[in-house]
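Please, structure for the following, as tokens.
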Amino acid sequence: MPTQALLPILLLCVLLLQAQGGLFNRNKKPSFTACDKQPSINICINHCSYFQKCPKSDTVCCSTFCGNVCMSLL
């Protein structure tokens, strides 16, 4: 096979890998579940960050009726 034909084949393979998301290892969002405790309406002001992180170490990001909020573990 001539070397001129190998370059387009290699380019096609790389483009197909990118279309399927296989070339780069992307970080997935962490999954979270609904909390065990019933949230109050006052807790709706403590929203999680985009990556479901809470600023305090004793809180966890929970899915509630008002969105993803940081709730205390205690």
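The two ends are 68 Å apart (CA to CA). The first helix runs from residue 3 to 20.
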